[in-house]
Design goal:
Blueprint lengths: L14 H13 L7 E4 L8 H11 L5 E5 L4 H10 L3 E4 L4 H12 L1
Parallel strand pairs: 1-2, 2-3
Helix pairs in contact: 1-2
Length: 105
Amino acid sequence: MLGSLDYKFDLAKNGEEAIALYQRYLNIGRPYDAVILDLTIVGGMGGEDCFKQLVQLDPDIRAIVSSGYDNDDMARRYLEMGFCGYLTKPYRVADLGKILKGVLS
C-alpha cells in the first residue's frame, strides 16, 4: 500500500527491529517521517512497548498505531499516549493515505 502511495519505507518484523532501524537513521540525521506500529506482534515486542522506547530516542516521533480493534476508547487512549493517528485493520489504501497526509502535514 505504501508503495502505491509513492512512499519509501522499511519493514520491521517486530518492535526490536523497528527500534534498531529507527536508531540507525536517527544516527545519520535522517529519522523516519512517520512509523506505523501494530499493537500485537506474535513472538516479539508490540507497538505500544516499541513506541515508548522510540519516544525516548526521538520525542518528536510521529507514530500511527494499527489495530484490529475498532474501539473509540482504545483509539483515544493511544492518541493521548502520544500516537498521531489510529488505523483500524483492515484498512484501505485511501485510509492509509489520508492518515499519513494528516500526520505528515
